Amino acid sequence: MIRLFQVHKAYPGCEAALSDVSFEAGEGEFVILWGPSGAGKSTLLHLVLGAERPTQGQVWVGDCNLARLSRAEMARHRRGIGVVFQDFRLLPGRSVLDNVGLSLVIRGASRRAARDEALRWLEELGLGERLDDPVERLSGGERQRVAIARALAGSPPILLCDEPTSQLDAHWARRAMELLADQTGRGAVVLLATHDPRFLQDLRHRLVRVDAGRVAEEVA
Amino acid sequence: MGALRIALAETWASIRRAPLSHLIASLTVGATLVVAAGSGALALGVRSLLDAWGSRVELTLYLSRDVDEEQGRRLAQEAAETVGGTARWVSPEEAMERLRRALGDEEGILLDLPVDPLPASIELRPGGAAGVDELPHLAEALMRLPGVQEVDWGRDWAERLSALAALAKRAWAALLSVLLCGAALLVGAVVRFAVHARRDEIEILRLLGASDGFIRLPFVLEGVFAGALGGLWAALAFQLLAGWERRLGASLALPRELSLAGLAGADAFAALVLVGALFGAMATLFALARELR
Fold this sequence. Notes:
Radius of gyration of chain B: 31 Å
CATH class of the largest domain in chain A: Alpha Beta
Strand order of the largest sheet of chain A: 6-7-8-3-9-10
Structural class of chain B: alpha+beta
Radius of gyration of chain A: 17 Å
Strand content of chain B: 5-15%
Oligomer: heterodimer
Shape of chain A: globular
Number of domains of chain A: 2
Shape of chain B: elongated
Strand content of chain A: 25-35%
CATH architecture of the largest domain in chain A: 3-Layer(aba) Sandwich
Number of strands of chain A: 10
Helix content of chain B: over 70%
Number of helices of chain A: 6
Distance between the termini of chain A: 20 Å
CATH topology of the largest domain in chain A: Rossmann fold
Structural class of chain A: alpha/beta
Number of domains of chain B: 2
């Protein structure tokens, strides 16, 4: 489903963020991209999202080479992806419910369907009492849960999660991981980037070590 | 939470963020519409006045002395057919009689003149469709008729009025262009300001897969709002002007063609708001094409 061929990504005046990375992830796979900060994990997720373009190489999602997509096609591609950004990227000035519901409206859901679906995921993540609060009033952990709810809402076929549990306590981190893992059961592919060594103990998922811009090793 | 509802909410939030700039933009659109519609109506009024004058004017065809009465009457008929109007043959004697009456007490000065000093002539009134611009062509055509020596049709006045009308038209077009550009730039600036205020949000929406249409809709609605409000200002201005014209009607003694009453009706009201909204939408789309590449 997701394929990267000899991808190289460099920013002007910086060392390469990714060098000669080839990587594949298929339907129903849960892949943990593990590595230290600055290893290139976030860049890899951004390339799959189409938020950045590789300097060299190709990124394919399904039958689409992302470099060939028009603006409208790229928007359509992104509508099939749920993303948890490292800095959450919630919409400022909007309520918890709006933040999740809006992503569903963007995907074409009706107002009522978007509200129901958003409500379901926010309650799953313990935010049922905070629906109308502006996101600015939430703690870091609560914001991260809103971001996870937004990614899960609408059950997209691809989930990209960048340090999705960095601000969660043990209970909510476990719950978030369960909800993400459940998505693989319906065929979704999950790419989760983290620097947290605790994820290395989770032997249910495929572990890929990313270091200094290279996919250094796969841990079976 | 539908797309339109979200766009409307965002538009309203943006207007509340910068009410003054929206007000100024709408006033500028309103002023542009007042000048455009007002001067356009005035130009049309002047045009129809000129045309009315053209259809009322009487042309006089002076005939050579070898044209006798029978030939003259035939010529009058031919001239009337040429211009699609009415013609009357005036004998030298009748012309002399008219001159004598016009001179009144001073008719004595005619005693020193040779016998029959005035030529026979044809008085010609063109049909109603003849506008002021057509008079020179009519005169040329009439000059080609056998026996016609001169055609008098008030060339100086007509040329002066035509030149004045053309100058007014050019000045109106120039002023309108400047005003339209200014209003479009101002609406564009308001939209650009709104885009900058929401830059982070737009970036997030793009990453979530929002289409260009979804992102642009609130801004276009802002432009439509500013334009429609401008149309409303213009319509109100014409109501005031028409009321003022009604009150001072008698003392102004304006011809019907120059009245602004036509711009104060319900149809004009709706048209101004609609044109304003369209203008706002187009100015916004133009600004967004550059701002949201």
